[in-house]
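Shipment paperwork, digital attachment
Item: protein structure file
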Amino acid sequence: MTDHSTSDEETCRVLRAHAEKADLNGRVAPESLHAVGASGGFALRTPRAYGGAGAGAETMARRLASLGRACPSTAWIAGTCATSKDLVAAYLPWSVQQEYFADPDALTCGSGLPLGRGEPVAGGIRVTGSWPNVSGCEDATWAGLALMVDGRLCLAVIPLADLTVERTWHMAGMRGTGSHSLTADGALVPAERVAEMSMPAIGKRLMYGLTVLGPVVGASRGALDVTDELFASDRKPYMTAYSRMGESPGARHWLAEATHLVNRAERTMLAIARALDAADLSDAGHTGLDMDLAGAGGDCRAAVELMLDLYGASGFDTANPLQRYWRDVAVGSRHPHVRTYLAVERFGSALAERHVGQG
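Attachment content:
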């Protein structure tokens, strides 16, 4: 395994110092990328055989939440990097993996949406297509992109140098992820770098959901840090006789509610991760966790809303990091992996299927 000398505490200090820069520039700061790479944050799902951590679900979720507490956008691209590396390790042959994982700490990116097509030609597969929302693509070395080849769902591994980045990411939150579009215009990909794949089973989908939830939980924890600073300051509720925020019973109540929601979201995230690491769940059990995953994202949103209510209009000052955490949580928690109504739909279907044929 690579010797990662940078501590998590030191890494988060760097990320926190450059989080506003990432948000303003729409791209994670180079200093943050270096710090995460040096601490092993981009090697979470690099297999141990190639010098990575080969981390389980709980280790991965904890690390992403820690990074997200400092800079949600940086944590997000570390999560999507983990997903892309997991897919390559699962489907691509050993010869390709050796090249792809040559630097176990490299940032990689990808998309599981089969929005491209591949045409077998002499010398390989001719790839054409455009994939939106590819987080971290401007700084990644490789992209793993889903596409259709002769009617088969496949995964192609392509160097970023062979693709075009189109700056299409113009969002209110998670701005620093630089989740732009990647375009291939007839790129010739060696045949061994294209492998047939399948849609992820629910267990894998939950694992990938944790790469989304981890940064969101971390962001809500970061927002709570900002709110704790409010209570530690001499700021008082406006137009009241209180001399400090903590003198207000209502403010104390809302702080308790927000803290409870963040703690519950974190507990839920870790419970899901431990269940995945145990790998002893039925499909129905996995589907229930899918709903838990979405619920944890909702808890994060509700918590940050309470924090903003405590701050009042000043929480939306562009110099206040609370509004950045709020935007990041609002966008990140609405990713399809944690979208509540889809989780309810899947859970309801699983419950109903238990009664099929019993009437």
